[in-house]
Design goal:
Oligomer: single chain
Number of domains: 1
Strand order of the largest sheet: 1-2-3-5-4-6-7-8-9
Shape: globular
Strand content: 15-25%
Largest sheet: 9 strands, mixed
CATH superfamily: Alpha/Beta hydrolase fold, catalytic domain
Length: 314
């Protein structure tokens, strides 16, 4: 039982240390008002193969939320100082640890490898978790009288990254990738904000907000708000957005296979949907690692960068 508990904690990050688990960690920290910082703040920076990773905090100018993130800057970011790069917002599942996007999925390494093979051009990764007010699961919803999670990721994070880094500003230069809850968020962000994002990858994501003990009341009794967060409802009732999405699942071992097929059947132009369906696989990192060699390059290939006039084409 103890071994199983350790394994669960390792995957989901419930406790940061034994002292945390046993209640012996009594250290305190300075109170910081969310959004008080003028902009994105870099806490650490280190070289990695193919570029650099910066640990940052991203304050929300409009939502007053603040979250940690890890930003991968490809080596071209330093070598081409006049160029603006496309960006991908990468989200974990719930509760999530953004470091898993590096240690468990190796997104920076995969992207650097694809760039080195000339499969894709250089792009920036912004790696985060979607859980902005842990332990609550907000499902990337703008909660009435509560955390505005969707606005934080779709507006505040995007604006903060553009203000701090040389990131292309057009909608066709921004994409979202996520797994599980992060996959649902990725689809919802791109479908609700096609003015700011043009493409998304959902790894084993779902299509309707989960409401349970971890979420609490996300909609305040507002049925219309619940409908707008239901991606199948959006496809049936609203004009399709001009975006490209890739959804993944497995015929055996994934509860979301049939909902994924229904989602694909419901997509209409100008929205375009592609799929990556494995014969078998679970709802886990192992399955996503089998999908990412195709899914990550696909997403980067949908995005455009901004080069100075006279720069050679990729």
């Amino acid at each position: 039982v103890a071994a199983l508990a350790l394994l669960v904690n390792y995957y989901f990050g419930f406790y940061g240390s034994w002292d945390d688990l046993l209640g012996a960690d009594t250290g305190t920290a300075e109170i910081t008002a969310a959004g008080a910082a003028a902009g994105l703040r870099v806490l650490d920076s280190r070289a990695v193969p193919g570029g650099r990773i910066e640990e940052v905090t991203v304050p929300g100018a409009s939502t007053r939320l603040s979250e940690e993130a890890y930003v991968f800057l490809p080596s071209a970011y330093v070598k081409q100082p006049r160029r603006r790069f496309p960006a991908i917002l990468a989200l974990t599942g719930y509760p999530g640890d953004p470091r898993n996007l590096m240690t468990r999925l190796d997104l920076p390494g995969r992207l650097a490898h694809a760039i080195a093979l000339h499969q894709v051009g250089p792009a920036i990764l912004v790696m985060m978790r979607p859980s902005v007010v842990l332990p609550r699961d907000t499902e990337c919803v703008d909660v009435p009288h509560g955390p505005q999670a969707l606005t934080y990721f779709a507006t505040d994070v995007r604006q903060a990254v553009i203000a701090h880094y040389r990131v292309a500003t057009g909608r066709d230069s921004w994409g979202v990738l996520g797994g599980s809850t992060g996959g649902y968020c990725a689809l919802k962000i791109v479908m609700t904000r096609p003015d700011a994002f043009s493409a998304a990858v959902s790894l084993s994501g779902y299509y309707k907000t989960i409401v349970d003990g971890t979420t609490g009341d996300l909609f305040g009794g507002d049925r219309a708000l619940a409908d707008r967060n239901d991606l199948m409802w959006r496809l049936a009732r609203l004009p399709p957005p001009p975006v490209d999405v890739l959804v993944t699942s497995s015929r055996k071992g994934e509860a979301g296979y049939l909902p994924t097929e229904r989602f694909l059947d419901a997509v209409r132009p100008p929205m375009r949907a592609s799929s990556l369906i494995l014969p078998s696989g679970g709802h886990n990192f192992s399955t996503w690692n089998r999908e990412l060699p195709q899914a990550l390059p696909w997403l980067v290939q949908q995005l455009a960068d901004q080069r100075p006039e006279g720069s050679p084409a990729r």
